[in-house]
Design a protein that fits this description.
Elements lengths: L1 H11 L7 E8 L2 E7 L6 E11 L2 E2 L5 E8 L8 E6 L1 E3 L2 E8 L4 E10 L2 E11 L1
Antiparallel strand pairs: 1-2, 2-3, 3-4, 3-8, 5-6, 5-9, 7-8, 9-10
The protein binds copper (II) ion (CU).
Copper (II) ion binds next to loops.
């Protein structure tokens, strides 16, 4: 019993309990889970991604990049921000800057030796 609890704690250790699941997307046999470490704010934010093949964590075998963008609006031009994902502490982290409130779209491009580039889409509300 205690052993089981310890193992569960070890498995959870790469996540902080504050992480918020934003999106979970399946492509072929892979599942991409995208988290934020806090409620999104205007300014700098960090998104985190974990990738599983069936139940196996394969995050480290992927390269990735992100683009966040907001369409042109009556009073302002199209906006976008791009960055590369960095593998650290068992997760891919994306530092992004969201320069205004509202709804942003994102595209995360992922690829590995076994997978050609795939696009994961989603939106962020703040
Ligand atoms: Cu805008």
């Amino acid at each position: 019993m205690i052993k089981k609890i310890l193992i569960s704690l070890l498995c959870l250790s790469s996540f902080s309990f504050a992480d918020i699941l934003l999106n979970s997307v399946s492509k072929k046999n892979y599942n991409f889970e995208i988290y934020s470490d806090k409620n999104l704010v205007v300014g700098n934010n960090t998104l985190k991604m974990k990738i599983f093949n069936k139940d196996k964590d394969v995050t480290s075998s992927f390269k990735s990049k992100i683009k966040v963008f907001m369409p042109e609006m009556p009073s302002m031009p199209y906006m976008e921000y791009k960055n590369k994902g960095v593998f650290v502490d068992g997760l891919i982290k994306f530092n992004i800057n969201l320069s205004m409130g509202g709804t942003w779209q994102y595209h995360i491009f992922v690829k590995s030796k076994n997978m050609k580039t795939k696009k994961i889409r989603g939106s962020l509300n703040l």
